[in-house]
Amino acid sequence: MKRITIFSPNCYTYGAMIVGGVLKERFKGKYIIKLVRHLNNNILNLFLKSDVVILSLYSTLHILDNKLKEIIEFVRKQSKKRRDKNIKIYVGGPVSAYPEIVLREMKVDGVILGEGEISTPNVIEGHREGLAYLENGEIIINELKEKPELTSKPLIPDDIGSQNIRGANVYIETHRGCLGNCTFCQVPRFFGRKIRSKPLELVLEEVKEFKKKGVKRIAVSGGTGSLYNFKKDVNKSAFIELLEGIAEIVGSRNLSVPDMRVDYVDEDILGAIKKYTIGWVFYGIESGSDRILKSMKKGTNREKNLYAIQLAKENDVKVGGSFIVGYPGEREIDYLLTKDFIVEAELDDIFVSIAEPIPKTELCNLVIKTPLEENLTFKPHLGNYRRFNLTESEARCLDLMLHGEQWKPKPSVITKSKFLLYLNEAKRQGEDIRNITRLIFKYRDCLM
Ligand code: SF4
């Protein structure tokens, strides 16, 4: 039997599992489908035994991964030497939103575009709809407009129980799309702004299958949690039934709902989060400055953010908040407003990211238009942290992580090892974002 191997770097993403499930169903008896997540010699042998290798890539950094590029090169060379096998290598996943960059940077046979349920089997059958590829040096993009119904079953790997993504074994997708329009986010551009939800009975069946395969902790992902089955108003009962159903299977101590928009929660929803999950909510706050929130098209403001945090606390739900620093145009005063917000909010946990220009988002265009000497992720920091040789974004990232620790309801001591952990995290983020920024500058003509 022929083989298809799907490689999803470091973790089995839900998208890769769904594509695996669709291919298994469609090509029963014709192909053996295998999902892998770690690059090692066994995997290399598996690639060489395969007829098709699909690289399911979810970060721009994967396109820059030299080890992955070397492996692609090796597999192609080996394949050319053989008469019996011509191994096709395709890229799929969220990076397929910018096939021009993928095809110029990685020597693959094509990029499987958009949501993979329809395009992947098409491409395996030899069709070109849903595929971008190079022909005589020119990029051909055959987009598929059709959006799939969310009814496919995932292919669940046997070692899924050993996976740990921020405390959960798996992030399941209950719906796609987001009503929001945040400039830095790929979700509405990739999945659309209309919410498509998986029927409840299918979600619950899936959760049972995950449990059978050894999964203990489940997180609900997909846009923003409470938009599940969103019609005109928030369909609260659908979201609450969803949590109740999953908690019945895995137990409320094993269920979390990471992403929530502050304008789509209320007492009932927070009450259900308290009752059926680990009792945490995570809001995308992003900034304490209304000017920056407006520039991000976040659709919220400082007041709404503080209200949602207060509401969570009143319902005895712990609150985490994520923040973005180094957004184009973020002045010192905007950053100070974010610090001030954290003092007022007293969040139980905070996550800080340096603004990442994902290709084809509005933020990407904004970064391309900003001269590098004005870009905070390139501009040297001259303030309190100057002896650490940081850029301004890195300094704000480090400073905000330390600040968040000090303004938790129970502040923790910043030990030397914790400081170094945060310092390295800020530097790593800065380095990654600079590499991505250089990449988008290289391809700015096809991105703008
Ligand atoms: S609300 Fe969340 S998922 Fe929706 S566009 Fe904004 S960041 Fe993306």
From TrEMBL:
Transmembrane segments: none annotated. It comes from the Archaea. PROSITE patterns: MTTASE_RADICAL, RADICAL_SAM. Its cofactor is [4Fe-4S] cluster. Keywords: 4Fe-4S, Iron, Iron-sulfur, Metal-binding, S-adenosyl-L-methionine. Residues 164-392 form the Radical SAM core domain. The keyword 4Fe-4S applies. It holds the Pfam family Radical_SAM. GO terms for molecular function: 4 iron, 4 sulfur cluster binding; catalytic activity; metal ion binding. This is Radical SAM core domain-containing protein.
